[in-house]
Amino acid sequence: MNQRHVDELFNFQAKTDQLDGLPKGIDELTLIKIQEIYHHEPQAAYTAELLGQAIGISKTTARRYLEYCVASGFLEACIQHGRVGRPERLYQKR
């Protein structure tokens, strides 16, 4: 028995094949949900909080996915300044 056989027994290869190319903390299915929202509404701009509510994830998790989408060139971020409080980051399709 060698390492490959051990990996096959524990299904490690199948797990890594599914996630090739995605950084740690980015799930393919969640990423697809986010991309589908922007494909259905290409002009929409969401904050991390609104997007998180739309798909049922936390604001922090949504921000991580949105920033990944910005880094990969799928989305762009802009700042919206309000009268009070911190400015909000809005994410829209590039």
Instruction: Give the overall average pLDDT.
Output: 86
From the 3D structure, determine the CATH topology.
Arc Repressor Mutant, subunit A
Low-confidence stretches: 12-19
Q: How would you spell out the order of helices and strands?
A: HHHEHHEE
Number of strands: 3
Quick one: CATH class?
A: Mainly Alpha
Amino- and carboxy-terminal Cα gap:
50 Å
Strand-pairing-aware structural class? alpha+beta
- The CATH architecture category equals Orthogonal Bundle
Widest sheet, order of strands: 1-3-2
Tell me the number of helical segments per DSSP (H or I, 4 or more residues long).
Answer: 5
Pfam families: HTH_64
GO molecular function: phosphorelay response regulator activity
Domain Transcriptional regulatory protein DpiA-like helix-turn-helix: 29-92
InterPro entries: 2C-system_Tx_regulators, DpiA-like_HTH
